[in-house]
Request: fold
Amino acid sequence: MDDKKYPYSERGKRLYEFFCSKGYKTKKEFAEKMNIQPQWVNKYFSGEFNPVDLMIPLALEDCDIQWLITGKKQDPDSPIQINFSSNHNTNIAAIRKVLEAFRNINPANMEEAEITLRKLLQHNVNCRTSP
Reply:
């Protein structure tokens, strides 16, 4: 991987660690699972792109989102569990938990949480309107 420092380098390293731990065979396979262009995978791994943008597909693949963001494993007794389903009300509850997780991680930086929340809400609307 490139040694160049990007804003999200540490998160990118953790994303790469997740990629390896899940046994993906190729970056193309990972890109398909994450619903991104294959050429973007290295940008996420390097930290040029923020891996939080992939929160929904990563959560669906059982990635510990708190670990991805902070490097700290989620406490199994923590009330914050991020699970997505086809049920709209369940997803709204998960979205609220994601926002709370961001608040707990860094109360001073809610901008990233708000951006992520908008993405989650849009995903939830898209799931509801899909056949």
Summary: Residues 9-129 form one domain. The chain has one domain: 9-129.
